[in-house]
Design brief:
alpha+beta; Heat Shock Protein 90; 2 domains; two-stranded antiparallel ribbon
């Protein structure tokens, strides 16, 4: 389950990353359909350029999702504010899917792009490019090849974990970015609201909470834990369940 979670999570993180590139982005929509074995992630940030890449000699969306060892995210000297790494995750989602669809609209060029890949990225249809008057968006839809994960269906544990990640994105995204899961808005407006899912209950109505936000990149909330230290943390929208130097820094 961990591997299928990881490749799907890359698509989720990519959608959250888009806000760092386009501050006008306001929405992420996630669909998890067990019956159709389909997962879809949509965001209304700046679309992918619909143009031929001068070096790869293919359209940029195809390069990003359908060509290995191609990315703009290799420079380790640059300050990291996004979660993706070298474009591997999106391509792996394609490789491990029976069907993978990329759609994007570029309002500046007034074009819409759609391309379908099949059979673990072995087959690809030519991109269909049409005139468009819609606003920017990008949508990735894929049907995981369950046989590769020794599964016969999207298991309930996997769906629960992905649902949790949708709530994570609602908590760690900018307050103006609304997150929808299966067409229903997740009513979490900020990190403070998100932490209440852990801290507030009928038994813990009066649990103390200290909130500290010095800048856009760091926010820390502290409370009491039961028995021993516990942490929930994120870096660039990625859930760091095992902690890390960022957690050590705060606790020290």
């Amino acid at each position: 389950m961990n591997f299928i979670y990881s490749i799907i999570d890359e698509i989720l993180v990519n959608a959250a990353d888009n806000f760092q590139r386009d501050k006008n982005m306001t929405c992420i929509k996630i669909e998890i359909n067990k019956e159709q074995n389909k997962i879809s992630v949509w965001n209304n940030g700046k679309g992918i350029p619909i143009a031929i890449h001068k070096d790869m000699n293919c359209y940029v969306p195809e390069m990003i999702f359908g060509q290995l060892l191609t990315s703009s995210n290799y420079n380790d000297d640059m300050r990291k504010v996004t979660g993706g790494r070298n474009g591997f995750g999106a391509k792996l989602a394609n490789i491990f899917s029976d069907k993978f669809i990329i759609e994007t609209a570029d309002s500046k060029q007034r074009k819409h792009y759609k391309q379908v890949f099949r059979k673990n990225m072995q087959e690809k249809e030519p991109p269909v490019i049409t005139p468009s008057s819609v606003e920017n968006y990008t949508c990735v839809t894929f049907h995981p090849d369950l046989s590769k994960f020794k599964m016969t269906e999207l298991e309930d544990d996997t769906i629960s974990l992905l649902t949790k990640r949708a709530y994570d994105l609602a908590g760690v995204s900018d307050s103006k970015v609304r997150v929808f899961l299966n067409n229903k808005r997740i009513e979490i407006k900020n990190f403070d609201d998100y932490c209440d899912l852990y801290l507030k209950s009928e038994e813990n109505k009066d649990l103390p909470k200290i909130v500290e936000k010095k800048q856009d990149r760091w926010e820390v909330i502290a409370s009491l834990s039961d028995g021993q230290f516990q942490q929930v943390s994120f870096v660039n929208s990625i859930c760091t369940s095992k902690g890390g130097t960022h957690v050590n820094y705060i606790t020290d």
